[in-house]
Amino acid sequence: MFNFIISCIKKILIFSKSKKIKAKNIMIFPDEFNIKDLKLGNTYKVHEDIFVEDFISKIQNDKLTIIVVDNKGQTQGYINEQQIKDIYV
């Protein structure tokens, strides 16, 4: 029940601020993500400070996994369809 309440609160807050969410705020850290499922043609790199609204169509329409990188190009995390569903649905 607690998780459900937290989930609802997250959705309400995110809905009202959906245009201000950055990639680094919803990414999965590399040690928590199964990179064995990645295929080179199914990824798209974005900077960690890019707003989600700028690349959400890549996830929803093209079914791509987003690789979040820092200023040096180092992988900071990943975003897939599940993170978008958790936040926007």
Shape: globular
* Major sheet: arrangement of strands: 1-2-3
CATH topology: CBS domain Like
Along the chain, the helix and strand elements come as HHEHEEH
Q: What count of domains describes the coordinates? A: 1
Give the termini distance in whole angstroms. 18 Å
Global structural class: alpha+beta
Average residue pLDDT: 81
What is the helix tally? Answer: 4
Task: Tell me what the structure shows.
The protein has 89 residues and is of the alpha+beta class. The chain has a single domain (2-88), classed as CBS domain Like (Alpha-Beta Complex). It has four helices and three strands; from the N terminus they run ααβαββα. Strands 1-2-3 form a three-stranded mixed β-sheet. It is globular, with a radius of gyration of 13 Å. The protein starts with a helix and ends with a helix. The mean pLDDT is 81.
